[in-house]
Specification:
With 254 residues, this protein is α/β, with parallel strands linked by helices. The protein contains nine helices and twelve strands. The protein is globular and about 60 Å long.
Amino acid sequence: MTDNYGKVYLVGSGPGDPELLTLKARRLIDSADVVIYDQLPGEAILSSIPQKAEKIDAGKYAGDHTLSQDRINELIVEKAKEGKMIVRLKGGDPYVFGRGGEEGQELVKAGIGFEIVPGITSAISAPAYAGIPVTHRDHASMVTFITGHEDPTKEESGLDWETLAKFPGTIVILMGVKMLERNVNELMRHGKDPSTPIALIERGTRPDQRVTVGTLENIVALKKERKVKTPAITIIGDVVKLHDELGEQFPGRS
């Protein structure tokens, strides 16, 4: 590790409600020389980045990647080698389907010091704001998180649909809207009850969050009817039944 190099902070911004940003994340963003950010943190957080910081948009949009992941890795290293303090700002938590582990590996290879700053993942916070606890003694004693967007270069899927179809707990799928039809069809094909409750949560924890509730059998039609868009996560399991009982909450509303 070279003393002349700067330091990198892989920072999770949480699910979008700016009040769920950690104190450490806020302090580091406010003191950064460079902030390399995705779009998932949301406008409320991105607009709070100080003017003095160099801001670099590394967001990935459907069919339009501002920067490839390889280029993002290179850019983080380049800026750190200039002796700058870098915040790599990500939505949710950097190590929960956020590619923070990949970026950390590149920094280790380059001999650059870094710290991970965990964030509140949308996998638990978005359901919570939607009135859906991912575990509940009467409904689910287990929860599993899976990605709806695997590395396209992988020869085989890392998802075991047969096991997931038999899983008795809550299934949370991040980044799964595009592949929703495939996902629910795979679950039902492997024996999951078509009447299993499912919820799609768009822009969770933000003032414009929206929840669509259905079953495995009808959720694809509901998605098309309601024009569900990313960012959104999918919750599958009996805990979805609690949505109406517990109710939604929205930031900024009392």
